[in-house]
Write a structure and sequence with these properties.
Helix 8 crosses helix 13 (374-384) and helix 12 (345-357) packs across helix 13 (374-384). The protein has helices at residues 2-10, 17-27, 67-82, 106-113, 131-144, 168-179, 183-191, 214-224, 229-248, 277-281, 314-319, 345-357, 374-384, 387-393, 414-417, 424-439, and strands at residues 45-52, 56-57, 91-95, 122-125, 150-158, 258-259, 265-266, 303-313, 326-335, 366-369, 443-450, 454-464, 467-468, 484-489, 492-497. It has 501 residues and is an alpha+beta fold. It contains 16 helices and 15 strands. The radius of gyration is 23 Å and the shape is globular. Strands 1, 2, 3, 4, 5, 8, 9, 10, 11, 12 and 13 form an 11-stranded mixed sheet that branches. A two-stranded antiparallel sheet has the order 6-7. Strands 14-15 form a two-stranded antiparallel sheet. The chain starts with a helix and ends with a strand. It is an enzyme of class 2 (transferase).
């Protein structure tokens, strides 16, 4: 894997002829003789277009805003990009994870702020890192059932300003004070306050059921699959290198400029920072200290951002004169054990959806997987390409195979572009749609795992002038158990993992 990644990074074209070559290829592409995957009696549902404001590292240009400000900007940008009349939108759904208590239904507040009618319903969903995926599939369901023809779905996250609560003891005391009827009652309650009451409850990116951060799970997974620190850093470097290349060549066309009130206009993601293996190697373990291999350099970072897409029935889109970007053919949600099975979703889900669609891995032209950690991606690639793993953990006779890197996250991923929890799903879908068009592909697979051991998958089909094609579902499930144990031996933390053959 190390040498494979090295060759992939070294072989990146140095000039813009790469983009021109793919553009030319697309314009002369001959359709493949494959089935469309359309379903009898089911409406064709399409992505007309989508946008996102630049994804920024938390604590930077968006730090003084509120989440609904970012969501509003994405909605306004979507309207400007598509010229879809506000009154045509039947419903708005937004995803978010860490909710601002002042705007609990952020979809509604953002919609009103963006100028939508107060007659347009809107609601907010939350499903960890797949919240905007949930928003999109909610829209698909509304259209498929005949309730709506046009739905706007999106997601937003502002990690620069997350709610910090008083301790539970202090909250109970304050609520009791609010109900107290006399001065004596109030004084009695105040007298019970102790210094520890003032300790705040800080939010943590951790599993409630296990109290373990996803970074710890990633470290265990990397150790169990014998993914080295060097391999993880190489993959992270690949992500940043490809993202910078995509930025420089203008491929990230879903990004729209955002004039931050009181500040300059933001035009691009600011987390894309190709480094060197030497610099990355200097960073210390971020989660399992001191011997872990997951670091800040090979993990996704806390990010602010918002995204939005407009979804229609194909009939409605064509009637309004729109040329869709892609078909949304199918989606699957799966949930697993949040402790031992948190991050191996693609391995378990991919063979299921391929069989369901009657396709093989070789039929897929574009893979867009959420990069939570480099170790998570590499472990999945290794497991997917292992007959041993398929037979011992999945109950299958043979492996599904690993997605080839030349089709995989070619414009960077969450490690480099950023990961606003609630907004990443829409970015993945739009990147897959744009890549299908650019590269002349037919089938696209989008995968994203989430906290709680839940997984979401989309199947996309390309829509280009010469191609009337259909999409494929992508499934993410997480494996039964890849055991990794940590024990203290002579006061040193050591890993003891199931040996990878």
């Amino acid at each position: 894997m190390t040498s494979m990644l090295s060759r992939a990074v070294r072989s990146l074209p140095a000039t813009s002829t790469w983009a021109v070559r793919f553009c030319t290829c697309s314009s002369h592409f001959q359709p493949k003789s494959k089935k469309t995957l359309a379903k009898n009696g089911v409406k064709n549902i399409v992505v007309v277009d989508g946008v996102r404001i630049p994804f920024l590292q938390s604590g930077t240009s968006y730090a003084d805003l509120m989440p609904h400000d970012l969501a509003r900007a994405s909605l306004q940008g979507l309207l400007n990009r598509t010229s879809v009349p506000k009154e045509v939108v039947d419903y708005i759904v937004y995803g978010t994870v860490i909710q601002e208590v002042k705007t609990s239904n952020i979809a509604r507040e953002a919609a009103l702020g963006a100028g939508f009618s107060d007659k347009t319903p809107a609601h907010t969903v939350t499903m960890a890192c797949i919240s905007s995926n949930q928003a999109m599939t909610t829209g698909v369901g509304l259209i498929a059932s005949g309730q709506c023809d046009v739905v706007v779905a999106g997601g937003v996250e502002l990690m620069s300003d997350v709610p910090i609560r008083h301790s539970r003891k202090m909250r109970k005391t304050l609520l009791s004070l609010n109900r107290a009827k006399s001065l004596g009652q109030r004084l009695a309650l105040v007298a019970k306050i102790r210094p520890d009451y003032f300790a705040p409850e800080l939010p943590a990116v951790a599993e409630f059921s296990t109290s373990e951060t996803m970074g710890h799970s990633a470290d265990r997974l990397a150790a169990a699959f014998a993914i080295s620190r060097v391999e993880q850093d190489e993959y992270a470097l690949r992500s940043h290198t490809l993202a910078r290349k995509a930025q420089d060549e203008g491929l990230l066309t879903d990004v729209i400029p955002f004039k931050v009130p009181g500040k300059d206009t933001v035009t691009k993601d600011n987390g894309v920072r190709p480094s060197s293996m030497e610099q990355m190697g200097k960073l210390k373990a971020a989660f399992v200290k001191p011997y872990g291999t997951v670091t800040a350099a090979n993990s996704s970072f806390l990010t602010d951002g918002a995204s939005a897409v407009v979804i229609m029935s194909e009939e409605k889109a064509l009637a309004m004169g729109y040329k869709p970007k892609a078909y949304l053919r199918d989606f699957v949600y799966v949930s697993q054990d949040p402790k031992d099975q948190l991050l191996l979703g693609p391995t378990y889900g991919t063979p299921k959806v391929l069989e369901r669609a009657g396709l093989t891995l070789a039929d897929i032209d574009v893979f867009e997987f959420h990069e939570a950690f480099a170790g998570q991606i590499l472990a999945n690639l290794k497991a997917m390409d292992s007959d041993w793993f398929a037979q011992n953990y999945m109950g299958r006779k043979s492996k599904v195979g690993a997605p080839p890197l030349e089709k995989f996250n070619k414009w960077g991923g969450s490690l480099s572009l950023g990961h606003p929890f609630g907004a990443t799903g829409c970015r993945l879908v739009m990147t897959a749609a744009h890549r299908l068009k650019k590269e002349g592909g037919q089938y696209g697979v989008v995968a994203a795992c989430a906290a709680g051991g839940q997984v979401m998958l989309h199947g996309l089909a390309s829509v280009v002038p010469l191609l009337r094609r259909a999409g494929i579902p992508l499934s993410l499930v997480v494996p039964r158990r890849h055991a990794l144990y940590m024990s203290h031996i002579s006061a040193a933390l050591k890993f003891v993992a199931i040996r990878w053959p």
